[in-house]
Amino acid sequence: MRIPTVLRKTVGDLSNPKVLLAYFVLYLGVLTFFAIGFGSEISEQTASLPPSEHGTAMLGAFLPVVYIWGSGLAVLSLGAVFGALTLAAEAEAGTLRILLSKPVRRWQVLAGTLGGVVGYLTLVAVTSTLLAAVALYEASGVGAAALEDGVFDVLPGLIVYALFASAFVGSISVSLSVFTRDRLRTAIAGLLVPAVFFVCWVAKLIVPARYEDYSLYFVDVGYHLGNGLVLILEATRGDLPVEAQQSLGLFAGVYEQPAPDAETTPESLELVAYVEPVTSLAALSLFVIALLAVATVRFQRMDV
Asked: Which residues contact residue 126 at a Cβ distance below 8 angstroms, ignoring those fewer than 6 apart?
């Protein structure tokens, strides 16, 4: 048994119809509200614009929906559940002892499990992103031409971001399954990631002054993921239109908002100077690498 075998087994364990059905029912239910709200906003914005500019309005709504929900809270929460369904479930059921008795190194078991979780979660995240695009398109009533600038131009970057977000939460969840060896504790601990995302997101929107005064941006997972999203999109697409920057600034807190009394909208917005995007990306990456290193050592010494 080698890494590919463990990976296939992990994907098989995660392909639980009940879990996927519960996820997509919840995902589509919440997505419907996002689509209605953002769709009506797109319709209002495009009512007096030529069809060639509809894509910009579509993009300004699509990116926040993906950030908040498509590859955001939904996928971060599912990632916590996936960790509980792998090594933690094996340890509880006693089958981990059987698995480790086979001719396979423990680090290979951990690597195969992590690869299965991240790969499967990325597939779910990409599917969720595409469903968000379809929902916004149907709710907004824009023409098919708007999909070019509003969806397809940023889709490669969003796929890379889905992989990054999945790797981030998947690494945390699999590591927690090693530490706890308990499904419930793994899931609860893993859900702290989307919980911090949500709490800090609400704080940014409702009490931005307190958010800055208490320097919550340092622990704000959503802010750092938003920085990562901007960095990935700029690397794959180039500079975003100011309308998209303004939307991400409002919901992710990564761009400075134009002054309320400004007579004209600037051509481009400045990034919020809390933390540089490269620093955010590096910090998240180093955190999960360190966590995985500790989990690998713990797994090597685990007495099952």
From this structure: 158, 159, 162
